[in-house]
Amino acid sequence: MIRTRMIFGTLLAAAAAGMLVADRWFAPWFPFLFACLMAIGVLATRELVRLFPAAFRPPHWLAIGGTCLILASNFAGPAGVGLRFGDVFVAAVLVAFLVEMRQYREPGHAIPRLALTTFAFAYLGTLGSFFAQIRWLGDPDRTSLLLALVIFVPKSGDIGAFFTGTFFGRHKMTPTLSPKKTWEGFAGGMLAAMGMAIGLSFVGDAFRHGILEAAAFGLAVGVAGVLGDLAESLIKRDGQSKDAGAGIPGFGGLLDVVDSVLFAAPVAYWWFLYV
Asked: pTM of the predicted model, to two decimals?
């Protein structure tokens, strides 16, 4: 398991780095980022919907279509400002209401299904939109570095937590929600996240206040990544499933890979915007 995880983790990291480097040549459209977000919109939403109770499961076409439209709206117009993803989110929710009104037959299902549809839009569409919004914060070279921080800092935290917890973990962190997580793993993950942020700070102009800010960023985004991982664990536990899918050996599904960065993206965006 560890070897498989390392192999496919390395391949995913290389693919992410390649995407960020290649996209700079296509600014301001960034087709590779667009393709990655569409993959999240289709594949991860499909996995998410399958975790919902069958009785309240929204139509796949509605959940996937709404999520993809929210993500795609970030790329509408020059520099992604043609539409605001929040407006498209509201429009998607209104469409979901119309769909439920059209197919309503008996009480007890419409409201839970509508709530889960809206949740899918918010979880994958709205949180995922922050990756695109970070792209619009500056020139392509700088925003490539910013996105690298968003991706590699929380994933470094994941790796650090995995190995530290595997070899040194003793005290359970969340025994009901995620039994394998330990406080020792959490500490190792935070150190790894901070180390990655500090290391990437030497690549370019990402932080105004130097190494101390990089370390603080690594800690903040590392914690956000842990919470994102726990959030997906909550969804899986409630859906009585161990993994969101089985498409990525060593990890599970695409949702199992992007869970930490989904929470990290808005935190990083606010950091880059206001700090």
From this structure: 0.91
